[in-house]
Amino acid sequence: MSLAIGDTLPNLTLKTNGAQGPKDIDTDALFAGKKVVLFAVPGAFTPGCSNTHMPGFVIKADEILAKGVDAIVCTSVNDAFVMDAWQKDQNAQAITMLADGSADFAEAIGLSKDLTAAGLGVRSQRYALIANDGVVEYLGVDEKGVDKSSAETILAQL
């Protein structure tokens, strides 16, 4: 079953790359009492993610945060080191990068995608959501392209 508006996000542990290496981040702590925009990509450094999806959020970060958003978070089925390198490559310091290395979060919310035939294994679908205190207020899942999960769409929903 896929995540829906009104659902509460599950509590799972994701990873970020801290000064001492990978560090655990619990989603309950990440979302509790905050308005958070979370967007997910199938893979860091992939063409659509690097050329279209992430740049929109980098460019629009200040506008999104000015709408009362406490954090902008990007997640992908990559490890914390890759997410850290991608953050630096994309100049995405305003975005919290979280690794869902084993696709646990993507699977828990019903938004994983099996790309094994393409040699990529299980990945996340491309989506964006707005959560208030962990409750989903908006969810846009893209089948093709980046229209439902773009920074522009998120701004229109805030």
UniProtKB/TrEMBL annotation:
UniProt keywords, alphabetically: Antioxidant, Oxidoreductase, Peroxidase, Redox-active center
InterPro entries linked to this entry: PRX5-like, Redoxin, Thioredoxin-like_sf, Thioredoxin_domain
Gene Ontology MF annotations: thioredoxin peroxidase activity
EC identifiers of the protein: 1.11.1.27
Gene Ontology cellular component list: cytoplasm
Active site per database record: C49 (cysteine sulfenic acid (-soh) intermediate)
Catalytic reaction(s) noted: a hydroperoxide + 2 glutathione = an alcohol + glutathione disulfide + H2O
Role noted for this protein: Thiol-specific peroxidase that catalyzes the reduction of hydrogen peroxide and organic hydroperoxides to water and alcohols, respectively. Plays a role in cell protection against oxidative stress by detoxifying peroxides.
Protein name, entry field: Glutathione-dependent peroxiredoxin
Lineage: Bacteria, Pseudomonadati, Pseudomonadota, Gammaproteobacteria, Oceanospirillales
